[in-house]
Batch of 2 targets.
Target 1
Amino acid sequence: MLGACGGGSARGDEAADAVVVRTVAPATAVALPVPVQRAAAELFVVGFGGTSARDASVKRLSRRDWGGVMVMRGNVGSGGGGAAGRVRRLTAGIGGRAVAAGFAAPLVFVAGGDGAPSLAGLPRGRPVDARSAGAMAARAAWTVRSIGGSVVLGPVADLAQSAGPAARSGFSADPAVAATSTAAEVRANAAGGVAAAPGAFPGQGGAAQDPSLGPATVGLPLQTLRQADVVPFTAAVRAGAAVIQMSNAVYAAWDGVTPATLLPEAYDLLRRGTGFRGVALSADLNATTATTGATAAAAAVQALRAGADLLLIPGAAADQEAAYQAVLRALRASPTLRTRAAQALARTAGLRTQFHG
């Protein structure tokens, strides 16, 4: 979903960008499926303020061909008609404005956990077993679909270590138990027409703190990660997970400094270690900055290079625009990165075909 950059018409800029991709990219590169301006936007999932399609912050979304938007608690609002009805009108309005601007309606992601919208039917608390996990996910899928959602951020596949960030949100400290319940939720969501996005890969149950609150280290060696923390994610993949979300934790198994969402090695473990072929969603790149000390824009480019297919920036609008511009510049400059982006967009297109609408 596109906005004009510099002088001239947006459509004219798109045509020029398309020529650049065809003439600069080497024969071995993969061409982008859309002009580079649109491709850059389609790589993002963005949050937004506002509770009505009439709000300025919501209207702003139609300036770009965003790949997805994320509905959170603050988007529910109040008033007559019920919360679900209000959010459904909101998401329908976002999609309608996008189509009117000449773009595809964005995928609608619904936040899980503490950020979940205040809607009846979105469960609270942790299920006690796989049967209840599946039942809760089935109810949640119905609600997510009813508000126009396609993807729900969850379940938490991290091991529920007693002193870790998933102590109260994870299913179990036992990898086998966590795997069974994670898979049950993934299957139940898919049966309800919703893609689950288990997180946070490769597992942050052993982190020193919640990575969303600040720098957090997982001190486990790689072999232990494979044999324990990665197990629920492998089960999710086997259950048909279409999306996996990456972690903002740093891992002693690698350099102990770089968040997993920015590490090629973490994406390699996801792809090769679990056989995952779906969409790799970055961690919250606004939160990534607390560890890296850099900007969300820099994190977006680094995450794309590392292997992320969708780049999540819940807010603010200025960060989203700066990240978009950074990715756009990087795509224009690098045929290799355009090939990486084309791969990411192909995976997202598959997600859209299966779950959108």
Note: The chain has a mean pLDDT of 89.
Target 2
Amino acid sequence: MSGQALPFQLTVLGTSSALPTSNRYPTAQVLQVLGRFFLIDCGEGTQTQMRKYKIGFSKINHIFISHLHGDHIFGLIGLISTMVLLGRKNDLHLYAHSELQKFLSAQLQFLYPDGITFKIIYHPLNFKKEQLIFEDQKVAVYSFPLSHRVPTCGFRFDEKPALPNLIPEKIDEYQIPIRDRQRIKEGGDFITETGQIIPHAELTISKHQIRSFAFCSDTRYDESYIEPVRNVDLLYHEATFAFDNSELARNTYHSTGKDAATIALKAQVGKLIIGHFSARYKHHIIILKEAQEVFPNTWAITEGDVIQVEKVIVH
């Protein structure tokens, strides 16, 4: 029996496209991966939504910005200012187009001519190829190009495999010394006093299956990013328009629900969630139904949704 998986979940803060509505905020999501909290895009009102859904500002050390349109960045200066007021000391890492530094630096210089209480570290994205942009012992994050009117990236978050557990019964059966246990967890076999080789696979059991999430922000349909999102357990893909506005979607470099579902189907993902709905739609039902015709395991997101990233077996 495998061990219990640690939290890997997405909290939705905003689902609207360029224009906020009375009940929908611009794009922002918080991904919790094994105790790490990552903010993905930061539309206007993000910090208000974080308070509403009880996500502590101090937990956010890494912010990923897909592109520099206002509905994805206008919440940044407010969030950073609140962090200053709260006396933040820890570094804040921003992964975005290199021009974001100019945009924020001018605002921060005007508001805080004597400087702020923490360091902002900028990590420029590559908009021509997939790139590893963050990695620690628990998670790896990749950026990959999307197809929008301005340079835009999607992001993929992959949980790293944890070392397996030793099977207690096997420890007792073979009298495995403490000094050998870490080596076995890391892939080694065990040799008994009589010279018998007990393979690693017989002595260990995996803690849990690794999970993955991908975020596809503003983009028109383009099969070039199918490979970067292939086989993820949960895919978020923008679905700004219904199919009857597919020409408008192409002209504005956005996607329909069917476009998003087609990407999910061809990439063999486990589950698809759609958002970034145009303000012209009071309800997203038509977009959702059209997507489900192509990819049945599709769900439309709403502010406040908490979605577990779970291993899904694709047949």
Note: The chain has a mean pLDDT of 90.
